[in-house]
Amino acid sequence: MGVSKTIWSNPSEIIRVNKPDHPVLVFSPAMLQQTAVRFIRGFPGLVTYDVKSNPAEMVIENLAAAGLRGFDVAAPDEIDLIRRLAPNCALHYHNPVRGRAEIAHAVAAGVRAWSVDSRSELTKLVALVPYENCEISVRFKLADEAGNYNPTAKFGATQELAVDLLREVEAAGFRPSLTFQPGSQVTDPMVWDRFIRAAAAIAGQAGVRLYRLNVGGGFPNHRKAGPAPNLEAIFTTIGQATGEAFGESRPALVCEPGRGLVGDAFTHITRVKALRDGGDVFLNDGIYGGLAELPLVGNIERLAVYDPEGRKREGAPLPRMIFGPTCDPVDRLPGKLALPDDLAEEDFIVFHGMGAYSAVTNTHFSGFGKMEIVTALSLV
Ligand SMILES: *Cc1c(COP(=O)(O)O)cnc(C)c1O
């Protein structure tokens, strides 16, 4: 008895044939591989994938098939996942804080690249990690760091501390590197420019020649109406700023995109449960499900509405409030979304660019959370 796997043409076909009442994430392997090749060709250094943004096995396998050779992991389970699916790829354990058992697990799995942002964590690594051929990247932050989803409240050494840590990493016999996290969904290349120049200043002050500079993730995916973000402009700025800031001592570059790599490879099909008295929309998914990120990063403007026969609604845009299915009052999308004015109960709202921080953060809160992942040739 053969196992048959359906590969759909596009979201409209899924809607017409299945009329799914639960949320469905539609994956395009072709789109993922195309974006991976764009990063590998365009980025002036090693591209690693930040596994936490979407650890689905089909994502890891398609990235490896497209030629990706490194993964940024945050926990032992992610280490085991990559060792199983992409055994020859580099693992960068760039969660700056780890427990002792987690460090031992990673050492046993052959992890050779780590990051720190504090003295106490560096002391732990120096005690527990063999230093031969191992790299420690000091993660720093900028005082004036802008960008949405600002990560500096949790991680990042001040530039002053980074100078000391970098010296200590080298003195302990490790390969000394620097890293930073510019934010997430960052569209302005100058954010990287500022960080890279700060990295050169830190290395100069420490008197340490960097083994590598890891410019983090934060690359944007296509969420706004209008053209897709210009990744190539960001790659160019990163290469130029590194050359200018470091000159002769230019380090090899690494990046660790999550969202920018996987975001546009998934489209999310949700259904309108009710139009309350013709006004507010109640969806079958919300902030405890696949739409968890929208209140943090902003609404997805790239969406389409289909009737249950898979035909696109073309009515004039009408802004509406969108609620998720749970009984929790915070379960709503920010602001209002412009939807066609002929929207009806049982229609489908299809959000594009939903590959990152969607399936992986889905919960079963309040009796919801059933989510299916299917594969399609095209996402439009
Ligand atoms: C989450 C994370 C990333 C990926 O961020 P994106 O905005 O999804 O690209 C990269 N590096 C580190 C250390 C992270 O924690």
UniProtKB/TrEMBL annotation:
InterPro entries for this protein? Ala_racemase/Decarboxylase_C, De-COase2_N, Orn/DAP/Arg_de-COase, Orn_de-COase, PLP-binding_barrel
Keyword flag Lyase: yes
Q: Which UniProt keywords apply?
A: Lyase, Pyridoxal phosphate
Pfam families attached to this UniProt entry: Orn_Arg_deC_N
Which cofactors must be present for this protein to function? pyridoxal 5'-phosphate
Residues forming coiled coils: none
Annotated TM spans:
none
According to the entry, every stretch annotated as the Orn/DAP/Arg decarboxylase 2 N-terminal domain falls at 45-262
The family note in this entry says: Belongs to the Orn/Lys/Arg decarboxylase class-II family.
Q: What is this protein called?
A: Type III PLP-dependent enzyme
Please give the organism.
Thioclava litoralis
